[in-house]
Fold this protein.
Amino acid sequence: MTRTPTGRIEHEGGRPRLVITRTFAAPIEDVWAAVTEPGRLERWIGTFTGDPASGVVAFRMTAEGEDATADDVEIRECDPPRTLRVSTHGEYAWSLDLELAEADGVTTLTFSQPGIDPAQAGSVGPGWEYYLDRLVAAETGGDIAEIDFDRDYYPAMEEHYRAQA
C-alpha cells in the first residue's frame, strides 16, 4: 500500500521541529491509555518498566525485534490525558512530545520532535509516520502486519522530509 507522508518540519526560533498528527474516533482517555499503558504500548511500539512517578522508565522498542535493548526515558512533563513530554537517553538522545485534544468525540494526537537534526529528518520522519500508523492500526482493529516500513515508509517518504529540513 502506498502511503502519503503527513508530517512537516516547522521552524521555531531557528530550531526545526518534526510534527505529525493522527486522529481517532475515540475519547481522549482511551488514546491516552494507548500511549501510556505498557500493555497498550506493546501492541504498536514497545513497553516500559519502572515507575513513571519516579520520572524515568526503561523503554524497550519491541517493534524493533526480540534483541531490542531498553533505554532510559526521562518524563519531562506528564499532564493526563493531554500532554506527555519525554527525553530519550541511549543511542538516540531526543525530545519527544505528545499532545492530545478532543472535540466532538474525535481525539487528535499531535506528535512532535523538537530540535530534530535536519540531517536525520529523511529517515526519522518516515520512522515516526510508521509507528504512528501502527498506533492507529492497533487502536482501530487494523492489521499491524500490513504496515511495512521498507515498502511504504523508507525510502519512499525520505525526500518529503529532506526537502523540508
The first helix runs from residue 28 to 36.
